[in-house]
Prior knowledge:
Layout: H1 4-24, E1 38-46, H2 51-62, E2 67-74, H3 80-89, E3 94-97, H4 112-121, E4 127-130, E5 134-136, H5 141-149, E6 153-155, E7 164-165, H6 166-174, H7 183-190, E8 201-202, E9 206-212, H8 218-233, H9 235-238, H10 243-253, E10 259-260, E11 266-267, E12 278-280, H11 283-286, H12 291-305
Parallel strand pairs: 1-2, 1-4, 2-3, 6-10, 11-12
Antiparallel strand pairs: 4-9, 5-12, 6-9, 7-8
Helix pairs in contact: 1-12, 2-12, 6-7
Amino acid sequence: MVSVSSVKQRLRREYFRWLHTRAVRAVLKTQALEVGSMPFILLSMVQKRDVLSYLAALKSFVAFANPQRIVVVCDPSIDARDREILRKHVPHVEFRKADEFVHPQMPRGGCWERLLAICEYATDSYVIQLDADTVTVRSPGEVLEAVSTRAGFVLGEQSGQSLITLETTSNNAKADPWGQMHIQGYSEACMAEVGLPAPSMYVRGCAGFTGFPPSATMFEQLLDFSSRMSGRIGMPRWASWGTEQVASNFLVANATRTSVLPYPKYGTPDTANEETAFIHFIGSLRFLNDQYEKTSRIVIQRMVAANYSPGLSS
């Protein structure tokens, strides 16, 4: 039986979703992006329902860090009209189909295609993965520094985080039986037992915003990691939603000079303050209130009022 409380909660979420959808349409009034000069590739996997949100996320970030290349890995839901909109606002966008990035020994779906795409582009380029449900509100100084020094970065979950050993990772996960009910916690509990190289590190970060320095061996690392984990817990479970984030966290933790971005300067809307530069509106918090709508509206209004031309600020 559906409770009155759950119905009210669903209606509230739908209302705030509607507010955001209405607000983000204004991004279509902003100017098209110019090709940037910063030495990195900005890559995102986009589905149809997130096209306008992606443009807001992209343009708010590019206002501070305009890359030489922008790549969109298209979910199968992206159609010709979506591509037309994206091309109008990002004339130099590079479209790739998600099914270009599959491997018989790795899961499909759950953003695994995105991670395989990152591996391809990171062979000789710095790659930043940007989710469509993010908004950049101030200059991301730590990210600019990471790009300039070719160091990895990852979005954290709490303040004071750092890279940790696989043994610590598994011990932390095993101490939280409730957390192991989710595939991420279960995978982390097993991680020290699958025979990964002894010096390997891990970070409990978020794949929604991650910087990968160039690496000629990233794909081989991913294939080895995925094979070991699927061998331990079984491919059906390893293919479930959430494992791509585990793999992304492992890869970035073992990249060159990776650091965890300071939290909550880079974080979620529930912890944002006057110093926050980057907000990830993750699903559980996205439409609890009107914060996503208001934040998106403010940054889009800035773009329109300034006769938006981020190519000049790169």
